[in-house]
Amino acid sequence: MDKLLNFLGLCRRAGKLVTGNDPVTEEVVGRKAKLVLVSSDISKNTEKKLLTACHRNDVKVLKLPRTTEQLSHAIGKFSAVVAVKDTGFAKKLTELIENEKQEENVYD
After folding, report:
1. I need a labelling partner for 33 at 20 to 30 A (CA). Which of 54, 67, 82, 86 fits?
2. 8 Å CB contact between 22 and 53
3. Total structural domains in the chain?
């Protein structure tokens, strides 16, 4: 069971997720995005443009430890980048991603 992908699906169903490069950039520039997530295999050019927009507008960006295919399957729409419009959802997703990264660094 993948908590991160399941929660992203929940965000999408709740209407708190924006998908696609141009719509996400609009949300960032309009300061409606609380968090931007990019897939692990996003193109360098797209990543650079998004990072620049997010940096200028003080929006946090996290790289998902998932591929575009996995992200797209979870949200039901093809996309390598998503913006979260809700503070609570953004906080929970940040926690899930950070916890997962910490778990990767633990040896059994």
Report:
1. 67
2. no
3. 1
- Quick one: DSSP state of residue 34? S
What is the residue-averaged pLDDT of the chain? Answer: 92
Does residue 50 carry a pLDDT above 70? yes
d(Cα 79, Cα 73) in Å, to the nearest integer? 9
Q: Say which CATH number the domain at 26 has.
A: 3.30.1330.30
What is the domain extent for residue 78? 3-103
- CA pair distance 99, 80, nearest whole angstrom: 22
* CB within 8 Å of 83: residues ≥ 6 apart: 17, 18, 23, 24, 27, 28, 32, 33, 34, 35, 36, 37, 59
> Mean pLDDT across the stretch 42-59?
94
